Amino acid sequence: MTGGPEPATIIFRMPAGVERVDDAAETGRPADAPAGPPSPPTGSATATASTVSAAGGSRQAWRVVVGFGVVSLAADMVYEGARSVYGPLLASLGASAVVVGLITGAGEAAALLLRLVSGPLADRTRRYWTLTIVGYGLTAVCVPLLAVTPALGGAGLAVAAALILLERLGKAVRSPAKSALLADAASRVGMGRGLGVHKALDQIGAFAGPLIVAAIIATAAGLLWPALAALAVPAAVAMLLLFTLRNRAQPSPTAAGIRTTGSPAATSIPAANTPTTASTPAASIPAAASAPATSTPAAAGTPSVPRTPSVPRTPAVPGTLAARVTSATGLKSLPARFHWFAAAMALCTAGLVTFGLIGFHLVRAGVVATAAVPLTYAAAMAAGALAALVTGLSYDRAGPWVLIVLPAMIAAVPALVFTGGLPAAVAGILVWGAAVGVQDSTVKALVADLVPRNSRATAYGIFAAVQGIGAIAGGAAAGLLYERSVTSLVVAVALVQAVALVTLIRVLAGNRPSKAVP
Question: Is residue 161 a contact partner of residue 250, using CB atoms and an 8 Å limit?
Fold first, then answer.
């Protein structure tokens, strides 16, 4: 049959314990129809072409995964280098522990809550690349400008707070769109493995940035502004790499693993600024409807995983506030299991004290000198890279139960960092970095596997917004509790993580199929 693209059929095996949610539009069959094995290709030539196409698609996917990893490496040198000294910088500008907690907590909240807007916006407009570039651009501009704040006198603290919030706004703008682009590529090489490799590259930059900052501070007699100004160099490199990736990431139909018979085929990577219409191939959606994929390829002879029947939810009454919010955010397209998981991770985020507060404590308590604070942050980022790789591989092999360690890790951080000397503080910082690595990689892998592929940016936005609520509440509470009693901070974090653990177990142990709107 000619006249249109014919998708190559690929079977993927889900991680153990994950029920894949895909809507009927992705498969072209009713939602309650069982998924049968694909028809084998006829003829040796067809089989060979299919194999070559799949290999080309895998190579292209790895190029996107590694490309984004290298961009993140350069960008993380910028904002992670700056974040490593947010506590000392704000303290030098006159901030108290409560103010440090509020500013850094509000920054993390802005980076998360505002994704509730940017995620659905990315899915509606299909401007994935535009939003990604704008977001990185904000970070590239705002971080080096922090270098001028010590020279502004009384206005320095306010300007620094505004720049920190704007830098986090850039994170909010780019993350859902970038995550959708990245998850689509990672789904073709193993969701946990792909996101783990990306996070490991990301963490190399997060490790190198604080080291550069520490070295410059040491040579500048303890001054912070020269180190912040020097971050303009990796900022420019990150933007150059991003534009290069954008120009090269659009795969050909053959490289994407799609066979054509005379007309352009949908690609696996969203096209920039191209809205999808009835006459436009779904190239701009971060999941080609004709080639659903999940995590790792199934072994020969392994049957495909049956799809979960779609059970409609009771719709909100038209015209009500609930109906308008549901429509605007895309909540109706996401399963209940996703929302419970988001709630569990919001509790984890609330309990994970910010490094701004950790750095503030290290300097005020005399645990380390100011110039050494970025070194401890670099060590945390190295721990995060290792944790991302280990848990990512475990996720693909053993399933999402690997995430059960996260609440315990978070609960251990304040007990180690705030109550002991240098060895305990270093151990707590390493655990803190490992927890951040798991949150930024393996947690996102489960989010991608819980929701329909064409709603991933929306899901990431909603997920981050719920985490943002936890971040701002946790940041403010941690600063207040730290000023009053370190013991109360340790106990409060432990209790919150106990609730998070129970909620997470409910999500992972749920036997009922996830509900989704067809």
Answer: no
Within 84-155, where are the H helices?
86-92, 97-113, 115-125, 128-145
How many of the other CB atoms lie within 10 Å of CB of 144?
Answer: 21
Percent of the chain's residues with pLDDT above 90: 25
**141, 232 Cβ separation under 8 angstroms:** no
Residue pLDDT, tens place only, 374-392? 888 888 888 988 888 888 8
Find where tokens 């000619």 sit: 2
SS3 518: coil
The secondary element (H helix, E strand) that includes residue 75 is helix 44-83
Rounded Cα distance, 151 and 92, in Å = 11
Decide if 116 contacts 342 (C-beta within 8 A): no
Cα pseudo-dihedral 212, 80, 181, 400, rounded to 10: 120
Q: What are residue 258's DSSP bridge partners?
A: 7
The 10s digit of each residue's pLDDT in 212-225 is 998 999 898 888 99
Q: Are 516 and 338 in contact (CB under 8 A)?
A: no
Q: Please write the tens of the pLDDT for every residue from 9-67.
A: 333 344 444 444 443 333 333 334 444 444 444 444 444 444 445 555 678 888 888 88
Nearest to 141 by CA among 117, 162, 111: 162
β-strand partners of 12:
297
Question: Which residues, 6+ apart, have CB-to-CB distance to 512 below 8 Å?
Answer: none
Spatial CA neighbour of 133 closest among 184, 53, 75: 75
CB of 259 closer than 8 Å to CB of 53: yes
Write down the pTM of the prediction: 0.58
Nearest Cα residue to 410 out of 435, 385, 389: 435
Report the run of H or E that residue 296 belongs to, with start and end: strand 296-297
Q: CA 209, 249, 287 angle in degrees (round to 5)?
A: 105
User: What whole-number distance in Å separates Cα of residue 131 and Cα of residue 135?
Assistant: 6
Residue-averaged pLDDT of the chain = 74
Q: How many beta carbons lie within 10 A of that of residue 465, not counting itself?
A: 23
How far, in Å, CA of 200 to CA of 204, rounded? 6
Which of the residue ranges 253-262, 432-441, 463-472, 486-495 has the most confident prediction, judged by mean pLDDT? 486-495
Three-state DSSP class for 20?
coil
Q: Which of 128-132, 184-188, 299-303, 496-500 has the lowest mean pLDDT?
A: 299-303
